[in-house]
Write a structure and sequence with these properties.
This protein is mostly beta strands and 981 residues long. It is built from 15 helices and 63 strands. Strands 38, 39, 40, 41, 42, 43, 47, 50, 52 and 53 form a ten-stranded antiparallel sheet that branches. Strands 1-2-3-4-5-6-7-8 form an eight-stranded parallel β-barrel, surrounded by six helices. Strands 9-11-12-17-18-21-24-23 form an eight-stranded antiparallel sheet. Helix 4 runs parallel beside helix 5 and helix 6 packs parallel to helix 7.
């Protein structure tokens, strides 16, 4: 059984790998899953880097490509590893992992295209060389090929499977999210909208009925969501994903019979440099269990309860099978009931979808459970109940417990502990039977019990809340069962260290050391960490130290202790802010030396494979005969990725995404003109099919005639024939089935629509009066906000290609009536036709980076000669690039105990942010986000250089504040237990 969390080594600074993996381990997980991005390790065709040899200005030096080191740390912590090398990974990552240089080889990605498969095979072979040692040692226990190929193409998936299986014949190889396979294990993922459980349940039911006998797993179960730059909400693009929802999902899946899980993401981390997919934020926090800065969230603790149960009851879970209707309600039916049955025991999940508390009794084989009280199921909650469980190594059997079991643990050869939790004030009932006579019964706390010697049965009633309550039963054979009744919140902060179990309020217990005389654990304390400890340990202990403070310890029974940690040891922790008061401004000259290229040719086609900042210079000659015929002097920059700032002859024109225009009446002159374009290429779409080129790929036009909105369409309900033989890449290249419909369009039923937002074929007509004008098809902002839908464009029954942005369609049009058709596989679009009178060619030059980036100004010391006071007002500077350099003094050693964010209150600019020479991310003027997490390796005690690479996009720009903010302040203390002398 695999209980996994997704953590991406490439999104976590290498010095923090162990911290994040240890937190996963302490949550009860036994496995970590990670994608392995092809482009991260092979940014250029002649580079394959698994040793951190390749450097990029936008990737901080503390991010690592050393995959083997990450796996080693995981294995040292006892975690298995699932490797997911693609070649396509999605992951909200640039091109879904495809390297940019691959677009010069083929555009038929994710297919059996021979060129693609040749390079994919080479990639697998290189990854396998890294994985082989860990496969041989049974550390890497699974390899996923491809990802989320929803459309079929069984032969393609099988070919990838066969390549990997030939390399690793004894290893589990599977794919994810492809229901059209018959021979290859297929896993699933799901990110359902809270609180609509029905689609999730139906999907899981369908999945469990397919591919009998093959490995099954949730390769990605919703653990949050990502955040985009240009649109969406906070804290994720889908607002907040409740932690309670994640718990409900995994418990539902467990109740329905699925054993293997991977939470995506368990720790999201940060997106290094320009490796994000298009529009994805620098933060990949994901509102995950472990937040971007290392904090343990509410989701962490809720999943920890479920993970610890699954880990503890692994053998029982693996032996039980879902049985429909095996358990039924005794009277009311306010809960859904799922039952897993085996001879070793039963696992029952009671799921309450309502907004009120549910009280249940259940019936199994004519026995009503519980006997006296009821099972309490809180609103929007699923409760796991265990029945008929024989506690291994003891004569005791748990007939039922109406509270939830966190874990059972062998403390030593004589003692087994059970941790049971409930809400504060909840009364739970436990029924135990025993084979040997019981010679000793002890209670501590709010517990009552009755014993029926004839039936060898004990019924225990425990009130949860306040202090922990403890029940101890010892048989004549000397075997002891210790049951601790605690609250849900304390169960979440129960830590297992070898054979010691500590029920506490402690925020986190990390590394520990032990021998037969002592146990010391490094503990991270927040203001809620003090209070009661219940300690179950094989050590006979007499004293406890927290830091240097001696704490009184009370022995409840053999191996059972109670401690009260004074509250003052958890106080005095306050987060602080640190501000910059002044800054230096330096204008970037922009141009150094560029290279001549063909006009409007993609950067990849010119050998530029990095995302990031580019500068274009375009020199063009325009004579008076052309100028005099123009209706106006509106200039448009058409079809580029992603954000451009344009000036002509030194004057600012416009800035924006994909299409910008401005009036150049006062700046354009007869003769030679020079356009300067600062372009930020932020990455490619992550669907892995669409090639959206970096750079300018359509052109520059002059003399705007009009915009023709396309808002009346006839829709035909055309759908893809997806299935085992369907090749989506081939369809995008040659959509024959859509062409057949267009050739017989009059035979299909049509309906009139005004908006394009669902799958189908949409047809409209436009009238062309002047064929000498230039016509630009623009999909409009709705298309980009939807993360690039898969939409195909046809003009006069000629297939133009997938819509990726504004495209010049002039050559496909004819005088008179023209038919435009769009096939929408997925996405939203509100297209229009832009009409211009003149196209500008001229001489095109491009340069990777600005002069300041090329000369590495971010590594140079700050000049103190001309400091400006913050706030800074940067007026009438649109179209320019400035470096804003400030210093902030930080008086602590960097630590995850007090992580920091950098707040930049800015407007009218796009910022690349460096801290001590390390690029930590981007803040854009079209996003509400104003802060970035600063990884601990980027900051230092003392003076810190803060450098802002600012592309000015408005004549009213400024910086209101530059501030380091501690997110919280925790303490680290050793908690040590010492044996009696």
């Amino acid at each position: 059984m695999l209980i996994c969390g997704e953590i991406h080594y490439y999104r976590v600074p290498k010095p923090l790998w162990r911290d994040r993996l240890l937190k996963l381990k302490r949550a009860g997980s036994n496995c970590v899953s990670t994608y392995i991005p092809w482009n991260w390790h092979s940014p250029h065709e002649d580079i394959v880097d698994f040793q951190d040899r390749y450097k990029q200005w936008h990737v901080p030096e503390f991010y690592s490509r050393n995959l083997s080191e990450f796996i080693k740390i995981a294995s040292q912590l006892g975690l298995k590893v699932i490797a997911r090398p693609g070649p396509y990974i999605c992951s909200e990552w640039d091109s879904g992992g495809h390297p940019n240089w691959l677009y010069n080889k083929t555009c038929k990605l994710r297919s059996l295209d021979p060129i693609y498969m040749e390079h994919a095979k080479k990639w697998y072979e290189k990854v396998y060389r890294v994985l082989k040692l860990f496969i041989d040692e049974n550390i890497v226990v699974g390899i996923q090929v491809e990802n989320e190929y929803f459309w079929g193409n069984e032969k393609y998936i099988e070919e990838l499977y066969n390549i990997m299986k030939k390399l690793a014949p004894e290893t589990l190889v599977f794919t994810n999210e492809n229901y059209y396979l018959s021979r290859i294990p297929n896993t699933i993922d799901d990110y359902p909208a809270p609180w609509d459980i029905k689609p999730f349940e139906e999907k899981l039911k369908r999945y469990l009925s397919q591919q009998p006998g093959l490995f099954k797993m949730f390769a990605e179960l919703e653990g949050g969501w990502f955040k985009a730059i240009r649109y969406g909400y906070n804290p994720t693009n889908r607002l907040s994903i409740p932690a309670e929802w994640t718990e409900l999902l995994i418990k539902t899946g467990l109740g329905m019979g699925l054993d293997n899980y991977n939470i995506y993401m368990f720790h999201g981390g940060s997106n290094p440099g320009y490796y994000t997919a298009k529009y994805v934020d620098s933060s990949y926090d994901f509102e995950a269990s472990i937040r971007e800065w290392g904090e343990l969230s509410e989701r962490y603790y809720k999943l920890k309860r479920v993970f610890m149960f699954m880990n503890s009851f692994r053998e029982l879970i693996e032996k039980t099978k879902f049985v429909q209707g095996a358990i039924r309600p005794a009277s009311t039916n306010c809960s859904d009931i799922f039952a897993r049955i085996s001879e070793r025991g039963k696992i029952i999940v009671l799921r309450n979808k309502t907004d009120f508390t549910c009280y249940e009794k259940i019936v199994y084989e004519d026995k009503i459970i519980p006997e006296k009280n009821q099972i309490r199921v809180p609103p929007r909650y699923a409760k796991i109940i265990v029945l008929d469980f024989e506690v291994k190594g003891t004569p005791f059997k748990i007939n039922y417990i109406t509270g939830e079991i966190l874990l059972w643990k062998n403390i030593n050869e004589h003692t087994v502990a059970l941790i049971i939790y409930g809400d504060p004030g909840e009364l739970t009932e436990t029924e135990i039977t025993y084979k040997d006579d019981v010679k000793l019964l002890r209670v501590h706390g709010d517990i009552t019990y009755s014993i029926e010697q004839a039936q060898r049965r004990i019924i225990i009633n425990a009130q949860h809340g306040g202090s922990d309550s403890i029940f101890i039963a010892e048989s004549i054979s000397g075997k002891r069962l210790v049951i601790v009744y605690t609250t849900k919140s304390r169960a979440e902060k129960t830590w297992v260290l070898d054979h010691t179990v500590i029920v506490s309020n402690t925020y986190f217990m990390s590394e520990y050391r032990s021998d037969n005389k002592s146990l010391c654990v490094e503990s991270e304390l927040d203001i809620n960490s003090c209070g009661e400890f219940t300690v179950l340990t094989p050590l006979e202990i007499e004293k406890m130290l927290i830091g240097e403070s001696l704490v009184e310890i009370k022995k409840i029974a053999e191996n059972v202790y109670n401690v009260i940690i004074p509250q003052h040891l958890c106080k005095g922790m306050e987060a602080r802010n640190y501000q910059a008061d002044s800054a230096v401004l330096m204008e970037d000259p922009l141009w150094d030396k560029g290279r001549k290229i063909k006009p409007a040719s993609p950067l990849e086609k010119n050998g530029y494979y990095e995302n990031g900042i580019y500068v274009y210079k375009i020199k063009f000659d325009i004579d008076e005969s052309v100028l005099s015929k123009l209706s106006n002097k509106i200039l448009g920059l058409v079809g580029f990725s992603d954000y451009a700032v344009m000036t002509i002859n030194g004057d600012y024109i416009a800035s924006g995404y994909h299409y910008i225009e401005g009036n150049v009446d006062k700046s354009l002159r007869e003769g030679i003109n020079e356009l300067t374009i600062i372009l930020e290429s932020t990455g490619h779409p992550n669907d892995g099919f669409l090639y959206v080129p970096n750079g300018i790929y359509t052109g520059i036009y002059l003399g705007k005639k009009q915009d023709i909105p396309l808002n009346t369409w006839y829709k035909i309900d055309a759908k893809l024939s997806i299935g085992p033989d369907f090749d989506f890449a081939e369809f995008l290249s040659n959509p024959e089935e859509i062409m057949r419909i267009l050739s017989k369009i009059d035979s299909y039923e049509k309906k009139l629509v005004n908006f394009i937002d669902a799958q189908g074929l949409y047809i409209t007509e436009i009238q062309i009066y002047n064929p000498r004008h230039y016509y630009i098809f623009d999909p409009s902002d709705a298309f980009y906000y939807n993360h690039y839908g898969r939409i195909l464009l046809f003009i006069n029954d000629v297939y133009i290609g997938p819509v990726i942005g504004p495209i010049d369609i002039t050559k496909y049009l004819k005088p008179g009536v023209n038919r435009i058709a769009l096939f929408v596989e997925w996405g939203v679009i509100s297209p229009l036709i832009r009409v211009f009178e003149h196209k500008i060619d001229g001489e095109w030059y491009v340069q990777e980076g600005t002069k300041g980036l090329i000369d590495k100004w971010y590594l140079k010391p700050i000049d103190k000669a001309s400091m400006e006071t913050i706030p800074l007002m940067l007026r009438n500077l649109a179209g320019k690039v400035y470096w804003i350099k400030a210093k902030i003094n930080y008086d602590k050693e960097p630590s995850s105990l007090h992580p920091v964010k950098l707040l930049i209150d800015s407007w009218g600019m796009r910022l690349g942010i460096f801290v001590n020479g390390q690029f930590i991310g981007r803040i854009c003027d079209d996003s509400v986000k104003k802060e970035l997490y600063v990884p601990e390796p980027a900051i230092r005690k003392g003076s810190n250089d803060i450098l802002l690479f600012a592309i000015i996009t408005s004549d009213n720009a400024g910086i209101g504040r530059i501030e380091l903010r501690e997110i919280y302040e925790h303490k680290k203390k050793d908690i040590c237990f010492y044996k009696e002398t």
